[in-house]
Every structure is written in structure tokens, then in C-alpha cells.
């Protein structure tokens, strides 16, 4: 079984990704670390523990990680509620409370330990800001050598940003961390907004989850319901892109890429309006100052499109 470390900020999208991974054969979710992003890391950990308890998976360790030192939500702040995911980040759904607590290690420590326990085998999936991954790189320079691949839901190539005009939320929350994670010498696959926005869960998917017998599926349906109500009010649509779930599904080999160039990535870490924007350049082309960003240009696979609609596949697995 391929060991997976998931780093997330458990809101609705991340919850779908967790449910997806729990149902995926051939892998073992060896640990989950939380990070501040859509909500603070402690609330994300509580959501994660409760979701795992609902799914009967109290065997998976959950560790609390860092919060964005710059302008992220601070511990004690509930979900900011701006994204339509409710005050608790999971659509105000009240999950059965887990009897467990987060483990004593930090998310960073958990990641480093798992990497050493599974040298050359651990896959990292990151569906939140990259704070914990960057911290792990600072603490253990050997990490890139030990990890098989890092799959990041983040960035935007041609698509506009979703945290302001230019930046995608996970990169925007901690651009320095993202730059360091992209620049490290481990293989990175990026799942940017471009591919995420081409796929969505809608009422059909929500209804299928609501009709399922499992409590987890029913809870996910309620979460989607909260999001849809918000999106309907603000954007006149009842659909939502399963960003994080796509990253999870791609990392576990479940999706068929159509366009996936290897590109050089840079991150804007200035204090200006483009802070958090990702820049891309062809590997054999000229590298602009933006992409260089004062660092060695780093190459990553960037998933731009899939051959088929991913939603039916994601739904089938979660069901
Ligand atoms: C990212 O922001 C979060 O709200 C989602 O879970 C996803 O990780 C998309 O920009
Ligand atoms: Ca997320």
C-alpha cells in the first residue's frame, strides 16, 4: 500500500478529498496534518477528527500544523465564513464528535517521521496552504530525497485567481512557503485552478450523496447543500469545483491527464497586488524575472486538463 500524508485545511473541499482517499484501494492514509487556510489549523483538525470518526477511521493520526504568520486566520478564529462553507468551514454541519485529540506531534513532525519510516515511498498531497511542507523542508533538508512525490492543489496558469484577481487561495495564504516547496528537489505535480474549474459537483451529485446509507456521505451532501445555497445566492449557480478531491484523485492515479506539461514555476512573494500569483514558463524557453523570482527556476508537472469529466469518477468512489 502506498503511504500518503495529506496536508489540508479541512473545509468542504478537503472533506471530500479525505472521503475520497478513505475509499481508495492500494493506498494507506498514514497521517493527516492541518494548516490554516480557509479556517485555522485547530478547527481544521477538529473537523478532520470528527470526519474520520464518522467514517469509522479512528486509526489515522491527525496533527495540528501552522497558521499563516502573515495574514491568515489565527487560532481561536472560526472559519471566516466568506467562502460559503459556513462558520465551521464544513458547511455548519455538526458531525458526531470524535473522542480523539490531535496527536502530540506537530503536522511538520508527523510528516518528517512518516517520510523517514517510508523512505522513497511516501506521497504527499497538499490541499491547503504550504506552510507545513515548507517548515518541514527547513527542519529536515533530507526530506526531498525521502519523499516520492508532492501533489499540490494550488496556483493558476491561465485562470484568474480566486483570492483576489491574480492569486489562488492556497498559494496566496503563504506565498513564501509555496515558493520554497516548488523550489525543493522533490518531484512536484501541480493541480491548478485551471483544471479544477473545468469540473464540478452539482445537484445530481449532492442528491446521490444524500440518498446514500453512509453517515459520511450524508454529511458531505449537507456540506454541499450549504455551499450551493451560498453560490446560488451570490453566483446564481448550484455547483462547486471539487479542487482538493481532484488533486487527491490525480495523486492516486485515478484520473487520465490530457494536457500536463512540465513547466517552470515562480511565485510572486512581493507585497504588491500580485502577491501569491504563480508564474509559469516553458522548460526550454526564456525565463522571465517573475518566474526566476530570485531562485533557481524549478520544474513541475502542471495538470491543465483531463480526458474525461472527473465528477462521476469522484462521486462513484466517495459513494
Ligand atoms: C483551495 O481553497 C480552498 O478553499 C479549497 O479547499 C482549495 O484547497 C482552492 O483555491
Ligand atoms: Ca483546501
Automatic annotation (TrEMBL):
<feature type="compositionally biased region" description="Gly residues">
    <location>
        <begin position="78"/>
        <end position="89"/>
    </location>
</feature>
<dbReference type="Pfam" id="PF01156">
    <property type="entry name" value="IU_nuc_hydro"/>
</dbReference>
<dbReference type="InterPro" id="IPR036452">
    <property type="entry name" value="Ribo_hydro-like"/>
</dbReference>
<dbReference type="InterPro" id="IPR001910">
    <property type="entry name" value="Inosine/uridine_hydrolase_dom"/>
</dbReference>
<keyword id="KW-0378">Hydrolase</keyword>
<feature type="domain" description="Inosine/uridine-preferring nucleoside hydrolase">
    <location>
        <begin position="4"/>
        <end position="309"/>
    </location>
</feature>
<dbReference type="GO" id="GO:0008477">
    <property type="term" value="F:purine nucleosidase activity"/>
</dbReference>
<dbReference type="GO" id="GO:0006152">
    <property type="term" value="P:purine nucleoside catabolic process"/>
</dbReference>
<protein>
    <submittedName>
        <fullName>Nucleoside hydrolase</fullName>
    </submittedName>
</protein>
<feature type="region of interest" description="Disordered">
    <location>
        <begin position="69"/>
        <end position="95"/>
    </location>
</feature>
<dbReference type="InterPro" id="IPR023186">
    <property type="entry name" value="IUNH"/>
</dbReference>
<dbReference type="GO" id="GO:0005829">
    <property type="term" value="C:cytosol"/>
</dbReference>
<keyword id="KW-0326">Glycosidase</keyword>
Amino acid at each position: 500500500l502506498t503511504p500518503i500524508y495529506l496536508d489540508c485545511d479541512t473545509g468542504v473541499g478537503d472533506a471530500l478529498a479525505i472521503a475520497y482517499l478513505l475509499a481508495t484501494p492500494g493506498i494507506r492514509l498514514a497521517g493527516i496534518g492541518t494548516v490554516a487556510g480557509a479556517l485555522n489549523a485547530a478547527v481544521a483538525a477538529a473537523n478532520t477528527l470528527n470526519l474520520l470518526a464518522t467514517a469509522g477511521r479512528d486509526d489515522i493520526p491527525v496533527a495540528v500544523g501552522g497558521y499563516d504568520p502573515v495574514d491568515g486566520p489565527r487560532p481561536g478564529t472560526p472559519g471566516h465564513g466568506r467562502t460559503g462553507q459556513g462558520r465551521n468551514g464544513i458547511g455548519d454541519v455538526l458531525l458526531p464528535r470524535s473522542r480523539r485529540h490531535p496527536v502530540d506531534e506537530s503536522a511538520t513532525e508527523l510528516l518528517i517521521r512518516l517520510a523517514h519510516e517510508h523512505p522513497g515511498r511516501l506521497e504527499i498531497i497538499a490541499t491547503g496552504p504550504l506552510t507545513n511542507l515548507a517548515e518541514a523542508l527547513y527542519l529536515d533538508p533530507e526530506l526531498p530525497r525521502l519523499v516520492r512525490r508532492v501533489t499540490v492543489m494550488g496556483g493558476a496558469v491561465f485562470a484568474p485567481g480566486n483570492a483576489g484577481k491574480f492569486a489562488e487561495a492556497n498559494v496566496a495564504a503563504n506565498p513564501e512557503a509555496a515558493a520554497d516547496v516548488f523550489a525543493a528537489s522533490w518531484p512536484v505535480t501541480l493541480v491548478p485552478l485551471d483544471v479544477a474549474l473545468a469540473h464540478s459537483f452539482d445537484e445530481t451529485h449532492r442528491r446521490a450523496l444524500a440518498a446514500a446509507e453512509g453517515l459520511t456521505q450524508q454529511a458531505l451532501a449537507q456540506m454541499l447543500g450549504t455551499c450551493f445555497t451560498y453560490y446560488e445566492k451570490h453566483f446564481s449557480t448550484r455547483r462547486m469545483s471539487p479542487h482538493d478531491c481532484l488533486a487527491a484523485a490525480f495523486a492516486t492515479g485515478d484520473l487520465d491527464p490530457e494536457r500536463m506539461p512540465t513547466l517552470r514555476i515562480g511565485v510572486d512573494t512581493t507585497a504588491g497586488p500580485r502577491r501569491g500569483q504563480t508564474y509559469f514558463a516553458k522548460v526550454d524557453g526564456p525565463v522571465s524575472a517573475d518566474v526566476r523570482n530570485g531562485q533557481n527556476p524549478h520544474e513541475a508537472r502542471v495538470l491543465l486538463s483531463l480526458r474525461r469529466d472527473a465528477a462521476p469518477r469522484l462521486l462513484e468512489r466517495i459513494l
